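Example record used in the benchmark description.
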Amino acid sequence: MPTNKRESLIFTIIMCFCMVLWMSVYNVARVHDWTFNLQALADAWLGFPPAYIVAMLLDVLVASRFAKWFAFRFLVVPGKSSKLAITLAISTMMVFPMVLFMSLYGAIEAFTHVGDPAMILPAWISNIPWNFAAALPWNLLIAGPVARYLFRRAFPEGTILSKPLTA
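Model output (structure tokens):
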């Protein structure tokens, strides 16, 4: 797990990439009758950059703050809970606000192209359970472990300083 703000930002960049890419492919395939083909991948990749920017902003400004607050207030005790328990609590609690907000983003994006804004609310509500069912296991079983592995391989513990060295 990251130990300072710089590490947190780098980890967030990696983790957000893993989550947004998968959820983009998942949602495009779901819209196309569960077809995972090159067209679904191309459509997901084209929608990825703006979704990634929105997800990064939501993660940094809303979701991570909520997840840490909730986890440390109700789920774990600093100094007594294991690192695994803390990691699982925060990771799980990240999914709730991200699914809510990114499902809304997806509904807005989809129906502004179609031109029927009245469909945004029903699409948002109906997408939440589908996205939650995909995001939680992906976060806990695939993206989280992969992101932590890549992060620690690239930046061994103690190599990222919390403040830059001054000359």
